[in-house]
Amino acid sequence: MSIQTSTTTLANGVEMPWVGLGVYKAEAGNEVERAVKSALEAGYRSIDTASFYENEHSVGKAIAESSIPADDIFLTTKVWNNEHGFNETLEAFERSREKLGVDVIDLYLIHWPVPGKYKETWGALEKLYEEGKVRAIGVSNFTDQHLEELMKIAKVKPMVNQVEFHPRLFQKDLLEYCQTHDIQLEAWRPLGQGDLLDADPVQRIAEKHGKKPAQVLIRWSMENNVVTIPKSVTPERIKSNAEVFDFELDAEDLQAINGLNEDRRYGFHPDDFPYA
């Protein structure tokens, strides 16, 4: 197993890498281009961006200039809150596709569940999926209640739900809900913040396995069957974050890390996001 070959199978049979590179807050131009190229050289085959990040063009440029065939790269982007609506989403998708320089996007997500709009937006994603313009569709930052409401009207069920997920916010109920409905949970901010890297159990387990704290946290998500997209623009850290396939956490390790849960978010709760 390696970052280059390790995948999970989505509900529609599409293979999605377990670990990818997130490029949130990576500046367009040299910074994100270098990060993407470093990731691809290190074996990553999944890149996660969004229209809101304003770096899609640079991500596409880096992929085009890479020696890795574009068809071998799993590319994710997202529709932002001010792009919701059926026609608006179709237009937003075309903008993203043009910036990324690809014919087909592997995974297209609704970035946040904008109240009163996300169901209409989902209809546009279903159209894109039915037309073969995207290989998989999903959502981001959806609670189980949002998913329940969406699936009442959905013709195609979400294949992925990307949410904040780390040991401080071990969303076990949401994880179990998604597993029950064959929706792949994906973690953004899987490393939490600095305090999580310095937490005693994480440090101790890292020493036990001869690994780094970030590697332990990424492995913890994987042990919970959660896809992760740690973000970094530092080539050394990008490479290090990929080295998580040569060890496993035992039951004692998992119990210790699970004990860090405080239901604590570093980002917004979906119900409290400033949509207006």
Quick structural overview:
With 276 residues, the protein is α/β, with parallel strands linked by helices. The chain has eleven helices and ten strands.
Strand and helix map with partners:
Elements: E1 7-9, E2 15-17, E3 21-22, H1 30-41, E4 46-48, H2 56-65, E5 74-79, H3 86-100, E6 105-110, H4 118-130, E7 134-140, H5 144-153, E8 160-164, H6 172-180, E9 184-188, H7 194-197, H8 200-209, H9 213-223, E10 227-228, H10 235-241, H11 251-258
Parallel strand pairs: 3-4, 4-5, 5-6, 6-7, 7-8, 8-9, 9-10
Antiparallel strand pairs: 1-2
List how many beta strands DSSP finds: 10
Helix fraction, binned, reads 25-40%
Q: What share of residues are in beta strands? A: 15-25%
The main pleated sheet reads as: 8 strands, parallel
CATH superfamily: NADP-dependent oxidoreductase domain
SS content category: alpha/beta
Q: pLDDT under 50 segments (min length 5)?
A: none
Number of domains: 1
Computed CA radius of gyration, to the nearest angstrom: 18 Å
